[in-house]
């Protein structure tokens, strides 16, 4: 099942806006009964279009810094690459490991409490694998802004944005962290299930979740979509400009593209970075040509695609 009808697209759009809203609310918004909404969701899960439900957690408000490392590897056998992947998978606070195609061929990202903690981690990594690193780009992530998937309905973008990385430390305790852990594994987990696991009442869990949302620790809830099943490809696009004063103009335009799903701000990286979920490479090149035509001050434009994700976590393993 790869063909989505209008009701399916409306349903996925609602799950992208808030995956934790009830089937009753979704049904009302898309014009079907609660049972039909539930049936369609089960089908989308069954056919692998929905792989799960993610809670967007701003780890900076839990006291973490975010680092991203792009690599071009060399002299790597399959055994050596597996050794690198296994090393990173075992590291508790490495939250993303991926094989890429394009400007870079490997990526990992890590949460740390301090710059010194990252230095020590990266030194351990290099002691084992420095001979396999041809090029690297290490960047602290300042902000990762997720936009809603308006391409699902080809409608004007609603500026609903989840932002990770720019928050100040917010007060939280061990119970909050346990709740976040459950939500990070399944954003749609019922309140009563969390309550039973933590031996608390459901209203206490509800109030804590509302506080975590109000404090911005929880930024939102999204369905995890399998792009290949909805005939989409993920491209991360990188731009360098000749005139940095025009950055806001570029950002406003890129936000208006229905296929734009995220914007990244990083220190020591490219001038502007954004993610696309597009139908094919032809659509990518059309977007690129439009950008170059509209903004003559673009100096360089490159991209990578994710070939395979080996690890994705949605909060630090505290």
Describe this structure in words.
- Helix 7 (191-198) packs across helix 8.
- With 318 residues, this protein is of the alpha+beta class.
- 37% of the residues lie in helices and 31% in strands.
- Among the domains are: 1-47, Winged helix-like DNA-binding domain superfamily/Winged helix DNA-binding domain (Arc Repressor Mutant, subunit A, Orthogonal Bundle); 60-147 and 227-312, Alpha-Beta Plaits (2-Layer Sandwich).
- It has helices spanning 6-17, 23-30, 34-46, 78-90, 115-129, 174-185, 191-198, 202-214, 247-255, 281-294; strands at residues 50-57, 65-73, 94-102, 106-112, 133-147, 161-164, 218-225, 233-241, 260-266, 272-278, 298-312.
- The model has no long low-confidence stretch (mean pLDDT 93).
- The protein has ten helices and eleven strands.
- It is globular and about 55 Å long.
Which properties best describe this structure?
318 residues, alpha+beta, Arc Repressor Mutant, subunit A, Alpha-Beta Plaits, two-stranded antiparallel ribbon, 10 helices, 11 strands, globular
Write the layout of secondary structure elements.
Elements: H1 6-17, H2 23-30, H3 34-46, E1 50-57, E2 65-73, H4 78-90, E3 94-102, E4 106-112, H5 115-129, E5 133-147, E6 161-164, H6 174-185, H7 191-198, H8 202-214, E7 218-225, E8 233-241, H9 247-255, E9 260-266, E10 272-278, H10 281-294, E11 298-312
Antiparallel strand pairs: 1-7, 2-4, 2-5, 3-4, 3-11, 5-6, 5-9, 8-10, 8-11, 9-10
């Amino acid at each position: 099942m790869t063909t989505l009808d209008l009701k399916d697209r409306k349903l996925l759009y609602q799950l992208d806006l808030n995956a934790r809203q009830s089937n009753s609310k979704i049904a009302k918004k898309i014009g079907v009964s609660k049972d039909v909404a539930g049936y369609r969701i089960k089908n989308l899960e069954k056919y692998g279009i929905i792989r799960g439900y993610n809670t967007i957690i701003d780890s900076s408000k839990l006291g973490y810094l975010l680092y991203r490392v792009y690599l071009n590897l060399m002299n790597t056998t399959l055994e050596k690459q597996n050794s690198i992947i296994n090393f990173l998978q075992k590291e508790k606070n490495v939250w993303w490991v991926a094989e890429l195609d394009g400007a870079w061929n490997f990526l990992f990202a890590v949460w740390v409490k301090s710059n010194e903690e990252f230095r020590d981690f990266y030194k351990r990594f290099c002691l084992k694998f420095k001979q396999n690193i041809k090029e690297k780009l290490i960047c602290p992530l300042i902000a990762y802004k997720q936009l809603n998937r308006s391409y699902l309905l080809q409608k004007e973008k609603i500026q609903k944005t989840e932002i990770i990385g720019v928050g100040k430390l917010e007060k939280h305790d061990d119970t909050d962290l346990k709740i976040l852990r459950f939500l990070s594994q399944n954003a749609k987990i019922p309140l009563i299930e969390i309550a039973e696991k933590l031996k608390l009442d459901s209203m206490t869990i509800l109030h804590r979740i509302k506080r975590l949302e109000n404090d911005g620790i929880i930024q939102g809830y999204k369905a995890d979509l399998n792009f290949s099943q909805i005939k989409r490809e993920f491209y991360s696009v990188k731009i360098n400009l000749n005139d940095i004063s025009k950055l806001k103009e570029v950002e406003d335009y890129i936000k208006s593209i229905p296929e734009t799903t995220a914007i990244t701000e990083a220190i020591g990286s490219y001038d502007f970075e954004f993610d696309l979920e597009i139908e094919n490479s032809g659509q990518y090149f059309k977007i690129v040509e439009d950008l170059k035509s509209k903004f003559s001050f673009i100096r360089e434009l490159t991209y990578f695609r994710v070939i395979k994700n080996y690890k994705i976590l949605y909060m630090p393993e505290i």
